[in-house]
Amino acid sequence: MPRAKNRVASRRRRKKVLQMASGYWGRRGTIYTVAKHAVDKALQYSYRDRRQKKRQFRKLWILRINAAARLNGTTYSRMIGQLRKSDIELNRKVLADLAVNEPKAFTEVVKQLSA
Q1: Which of 17, 30, 39, 45 is the most buried (most CB within 10 A)?
Q2: 79 exposed, middle or buried (CB, 10 Å; 0-12, 13-18, 19+)?
Q3: What's the angle, vertex CA 74, arms to CA 98 and CA 95, rounded to 5?
Q4: Which three-class secondary structure state does DSSP give residue 74?
Q5: Per-domain residue ranges for the chain?
């Protein structure tokens, strides 16, 4: 009696991997074994980078806030310290957006801190 290999499930599994690899260059998008390695690595990168994206945005916000704060005669660290003391609850994302798109509003926030 021949061994049952469940062709339906294995074909579906391979098809799923090849579908995820569609658009990859060369054999990475067509050959199952090569595509499987490429997809596995891509999934590892996407898992890692979902966390790194948060760090990178925070760094960007801090850079923008620091640049705008220095234009207003203070530094990032002094400004954040004053925000904490004065119980103004603006997060870095909002402050960075104000610094880029609404510089006058950002200046008003700095004035509130120094007053």
Answers
A1: 39
A2: buried
A3: 20
A4: coil
A5: 7-114
